[in-house]
Each structure stands twice: as structure tokens, then as C-alpha cells.
Amino acid sequence: MIYLWVAFAGSLGALSRFAIARWSVALGLTGFPYATLVVNFTGSLLIGFLAVALDQKWNVTDSFKVALITGGLGGFTTFSAFSMEVIHMFLQGELLKSVSYVFSTMIFCLLACAFGVYLAKQIV
Using an 8 Å Cβ cutoff, are 55 and 68 in contact? Predict the structure, then answer.
């Protein structure tokens, strides 16, 4: 049964990621992978928060934790897309853009995860 919950949560995560990508295009945010940056930032914040909240503060089953983090956040975050986008920019000769994308993603996502941990410890 856990496999079904992981698959269900993963599909919700993937649909959420898709919706954010469509939304960014509709807003004209092209030329830089803003949607992927937003998704990775948000996913990093959520995983930091949920890792603490689910393990230390909230009384939930291990199956729920796995479904939410592995399924939901695994389907939502797009690190593989990030990697492909960096390589694509690099191969297109956009070295400065690819390097700025790598560093901004790493810095913001690590800070978001740390902030998620901090938030969980403060409010949960």
C-alpha cells in the first residue's frame, strides 16, 4: 500500500511542479529557469521543515513520512531538470548564466533548507 501512497503523492508533486512551470511561462519568465529555481527553493524549504516536524514534533506514521517526502517532494523538486538546464546553458556557450544558476540554486536552496529546519524548531 505504501507504494500507492508514494505514487499518489509523487503525482501531486509532479503536477504542482508542472503548474509552476506553466505559470512562469504565462508570466513571461523565460530566458532563465525561474520555475526550476522556485521549485528547488520551495522543495528545499519544505524538506528542511518536514524533516524536523515529521520526525520530532508531529506524531505521524513512517508510511506518511515516506509518502510525503519521497513521493510528494520527490515528484515536486527538479534537481535532474536543474542539471540538464546547466549543461544545456554551458553547451550553448552561456558560461556566466550557467555558473550563476548553479551558485544561486545552491546558496538559496541550502539557506531555504536551514530556514525550514529553524522554522520547524520554532513553531512546531
Answer: no
pTM: 0.81
Q: What pLDDT, in 10s, does the model give residues 60-96?
A: 999 999 999 999 999 999 898 899 999 999 999 999 9
**Whether the Cβ atoms of residue 56 and residue 117 lie closer than 8 Å to each other:** no
What HEC string does 95-123 produce? HHHHHHHHHHHHHHHHHHHHHHHHHHHHH
Are 36 and 77 in contact by the 8 Å Cβ rule? The answer is no
Instruction: Find, among 33, 20, 116, 27, the residue nearest to 76 by Cα.
Output: 20
Neighbouring CB atoms inside 10 A of 123's CB total: 9
| Alpha-carbon distance values, 78 to 58, 81, 117 (Å) | 27, 5, 21
Contact of 6 with 67, CB cutoff 8 Å: yes
